[in-house]
Specification:
- By secondary structure, the protein is mainly beta.
- Strands 1-2-3-4-5-6-7-8-9-10 form a 10-stranded antiparallel beta barrel.
- A hairpin with a 7-residue loop joins strand 9 and strand 10.
């Protein structure tokens, strides 16, 4: 039995016993507090070199990719409850710029990721999620070429001088995922 299932079972049992036991009135106090993730993205602050691989035609069966190289600058806003990320990269189709606003929701203990591409100047559908065991996962429902898809963003392999960001798409409700974008970030 997993820890979360055990805690759920214990909480359920305590709730049933509450009318019969004075100690049952305090069962809710024993539940673990939600983890505060307000500093989950602190590892990402600063200036990074980035090497990006982007799938040109995701979810079509095409393996064609392009590569970009550039710089990512990330700074705190709102005393760390938010972060602003600026991306500049160059590739075979020229210069590309993007901007991401990360916002922490202390009630939900989750982050949202709000991305804008300089070529169209609009915010993409926000992605929402959290970190667990050193890995961040945020999700959104979006559209690609007129069809509904799921998008998953993952931060992994996090060290003081490097980490990986991957964005994957699913057209089958999350049963299978295809990596559409990978950024390898490094510091000197």
């Amino acid at each position: 039995m997993t820890l979360s299932k055990l805690l759920t079972a214990l909480a359920f049992g305590a709730a049933l016993a509450a009318p019969f036991c004075a100690a049952g009135a305090h069962a809710a106090d024993a539940a673990p507090a939600a983890r505060d993730g307000a500093h989950d993205f602190d590892f990402d602050l600063g200036v990074w070199k980035t090497h990006i691989t982007r799938r040109v035609h995701p979810l079509t069966g095409s393996g064609e990719t392009i590569r970009l190289t550039g710089t990512v600058t990330i700074r705190k806003v709102w005393d760390g409850r938010g972060q602003l990320e600026e991306i500049e990269a160059d590739g075979p189709k020229g210069h590309w710029e993007g901007m991401t606003l990360f916002l922490y929701n202390p009630q939900a203990h989750q982050w949202s990721m709000n991305f804008a591409n300089s070529s169209n100047g609009t915010l993409a559908t926000p992605m929402v999620g959290s970190f667990e065991n050193g890995r961040g996962e945020l999700f959104a429902q979006d559209t690609l070429d007129g069809r509904s898809i799921l998008v998953r963003a993952v931060w992994s392999d996090i060290t003081p001088t490097s980490h990986t960001y991957q964005e994957s798409y699913s057209a089958d409700g999350g049963r299978t995922w295809e990596v559409a974008f990978t950024a390898m970030k490094t510091k000197e």
